[in-house]
TrEMBL record:
PANTHER family: CONSERVED COMPONENT OF ABC TRANSPORTER FOR NATURAL AMINO ACIDS-RELATED, HIGH-AFFINITY BRANCHED-CHAIN AMINO ACID TRANSPORT ATP-BINDING PROTEIN. It comes from Methylopila capsulata. One of its GO terms (cellular component) is plasma membrane. Residues 7-237 form the ABC transporter domain. Belongs to the ABC transporter superfamily. Keywords: ATP-binding, Nucleotide-binding, Transport. One of its GO terms (molecular function) is ATP hydrolysis activity. This is ABC transporter ATP-binding protein. InterPro entries: AAA+_ATPase, ABC_AA/LPS_Transport, ABC_transporter-like_ATP-bd, ABC_transporter-like_CS, BCA_ABC_TP_C, P-loop_NTPase. It comes from the Bacteria.
């Protein structure tokens, strides 16, 4: 990691009419950092995530990528700055094969020969090379998640944002995904929004807990997840 943060949010606010979903959040992500955002439903973490990647324009505050303000920029422009995003619901072209889907991403940035090679590498890295010729609309949910993740990493982004990547996956698929995310964090910075606390415990190095639009706790995963305030608000009385 370098000393300078890759991504910073300062005083970030998001209001929907009279409702404040995010209330003045500060956040910093270092180069090569794997950071998980957690919190109960309605805590503001997904809204915060959407402001980072351009899906929502902040009401107030700023988001900076390597010192450059990106708050309010279109999602497509933020993506071109080296930010890869996977949303909670797979966003795929159901009529295309897995290979053709990933080629949509790689063709946008590479000449044809290199594009094909990069797409093959991405599918292999996600462990779904065998599905290259399969139409994605016929794939199981977990397989679709991995194909979409291959689309994200194929462009080799500096920052990867993942919203509920383990949702709807089988136990074996979640285990595999956890290994993949840890491996991805060796070459990219990664932010994960996730509800599955067993999954968070497995992959997280640093955790930010949201509650009522604010940061309740932030720091090393073991310390934060052991915080009594976090257990009371999010994990429940039976959490270890």
């Amino acid at each position: 990691m370098t000393d300078a943060p890759l991504l910073e949010a300062e005083g970030l606010v998001m209001r929907f009419g009279g409702v404040t979903a995010v209330a003045g959040v500060d956040f910093s992500l270092g180069e090569g950092e794997l950071h998980c955002l957690v919190g109960p439903n309605g805590a503001g973490k997904s809204t915060f995530f959407k402001m980072l990647c351009g899906q929502l324009k902040p009401t107030a505050g700023d988001v900076r990528l390597r010192g450059r303000s990106i708050a309010g920029l279109p999602a497509s422009r933020i993506a071109r700055l080296g930010v890869g995003v996977k949303t909670q619901v797979p966003s795929l072209f159901d009529g295309l094969t897995a290979m053709a889907s990933v080629r949509v991403a790689t063709d946008a940035v590479l000449p044809p020969t290199l594009s094909k090679r990069r797409a093959e590498e991405a599918l292999e890295r996600m462990g779904v090379s065998r599905l290259a010729g399969h139409v994605v609309g016929r794939l199981a949910h977990g397989q679709r998640q991995l194909v979409e993740l291959a689309m994200v990493i194929a462009q080799k982004p500096d920052l990867i944002l993942l919203d509920e990547p383990a949702a709807g996956m089988t136990g074996a698929e979640v285990d595999r995904l956890g290994d993949l995310i840890v491996e991805l964090a060796r070459s990219s910075s990664v932010i994960v929004v996730e509800h599955d606390m067993a999954f968070i415990r497995r992959i997280a190095r640093t955790v930010t807990v949201f509650n009522q639009g604010r940061v309740l706790a932030q720091g090393p995963a073991a310390e934060v997840l052991a915080d009594s305030r976090v257990r009371d608000v999010y994990l429940g009385k039976d959490a270890a």
